[in-house]
Amino acid sequence: MKNIKLTIEYDGTDFLGWQKQSKGRTVQEEIEKALSKILKKDVKINGSGRTDASVHAKGQVANFREAFTIPVERLPVALNSVLPDDIAILSAIEMNYDFHARYNAMGKKYVYKIYNSNIRSPLSRNYVYYVPQDLDIEKMKMATKYFLGTHDFKGFMASGSSVKETVRTIYNLDITEKEKQITVEVSGNGFLYNMVRIITGTLVDVGRGKINLNDLENIIASGDRNRSGHTASAQGLYLYEVYYK
Amino acid sequence: MKNIKLTIEYDGTDFLGWQKQSKGRTVQEEIEKALSKILKKDVKINGSGRTDASVHAKGQVANFREAFTIPVERLPVALNSVLPDDIAILSAIEMNYDFHARYNAMGKKYVYKIYNSNIRSPLSRNYVYYVPQDLDIEKMKMATKYFLGTHDFKGFMASGSSVKETVRTIYNLDITEKEKQITVEVSGNGFLYNMVRIITGTLVDVGRGKINLNDLENIIASGDRNRSGHTASAQGLYLYEVYYK
């Protein structure tokens, strides 16, 4: 019995998301189908966490435990030959039997891409969040410091989410710009449902003057979803890396 | 009567190409439909040239002559509101009555993107040419100099093309690399059918050792399509700019 860690890239555009469901195309199901075809037995995988419809991944992680004879280093090529074009296995590594992609995750890094121009871009439409309004990027950069460290992020979780423990630690939150593209990079020990998209939406709201920089500390402390910013759209979001010990 | 020059970005993935045809989705037809809707009359446009299915544009140019009252500077916003997501008008400028997007074009600039890695990339699959083999980029860079200047490019035209005059001048041919992405930039006074894709295919064949650098001068001089390289795939190609006086 081997325990295999897969690192996965996918284009979320044509998926209902990561997690298998009764109807519709999901990343998990496509990978399980490919594994079952290559290993000639039913295989179930554990993802590090779900991603929503239209959300992309450059470094999603999953594991599975199975007995098989094909050399582990040949798994990516074998799987990629049967996977659809919008999923690829970047690497496969054998781990200790105890390793679990979700339970052992120490944190994650997300990237969020914004396209800021008065004209939308056909070529990047599925891969960025298009913001036509002028943004004050310096204000957005100043806003990042309020999110750093350990906070109760209850106000940055999709309403209706049932999670009880809402304290999370953000290690890093950076904004860079290149021509019309603004990139938000965030890493932390864990993220609530929609948290990255609401943080990004809040930064955009600061950038276009809808939220005052001076109010941000209070908005975060309030834990009130009605005071934080809008939820930035799914297609700008990329799961970049999952951290393990 | 006004004569309007449109600059256009499109994602070629879901088009049969630029030119209108009896069946299937084309960029020209979508723009003509949008213009007819906004100007409330039938409008025909002249493109600077065709692009094939799956080929993209960051700066395709077209013109049309019509009498209308809507201010020219408002045309892009008006058109973009009715155009599909995969086309956008970047600018609209009024020209002299004589201006013609095709006849007045002095040259063009194309960009060709290659993704070179042993694992394919789902996120860029529609926007790059995926080359899994190792490429000797220094050799590819050395190869570019043989294409510069004025040559008979008969051997770099799709076979079956009926064009008689096959002499063209290449002003510039540059290769740059960043991680796994290789970008070929080429500008010239005109390009034969598939010429950029065959030049790129030839450069890739030099990079993977299928064509010898020392033979390149003879291959170009021979005018023999059987001696030049393969035709690189359409989805890596971008029409970037059309030059006018």
Commentary on this structure:
2 copies of one chain form a homodimer. Chain A is α+β, with helices and mostly antiparallel strands. Chain A folds into 2 domains: 2-95, Alpha-Beta Plaits (2-Layer Sandwich), CATH 3.30.70; 107-243, Pseudouridine synthase I, catalytic domain, C-terminal subdomain (Alpha-Beta Plaits), CATH 3.30.70.660. Helix content of chain A is 20%, strand content 31%. Chain A has 5 helices and 10 strands, in the order E-H-E-E-H-E-E-E-H-E-E-E-H-H-E. Chain A has helices at 27-39, 75-82, 137-143, 195-207, 216-222; strands at residues 2-10, 46-47, 56-66, 87-95, 107-116, 129-131, 149-152, 167-178, 181-188, 237-243. In chain A, strands 1, 2, 3, 4, 5, 6, 7, 8, 9 and 10 form a 10-stranded mixed β-sheet that branches. In chain A, strand 2 (46-47) and strand 3 (56-66) form a beta hairpin. The radius of gyration of chain A is 19 Å and the shape is globular. The two termini of chain A are 22 Å apart. The model of chain A has no long low-confidence stretch (mean pLDDT 97). Chains A and B meet through strand 4 of A and strand 4 of B.
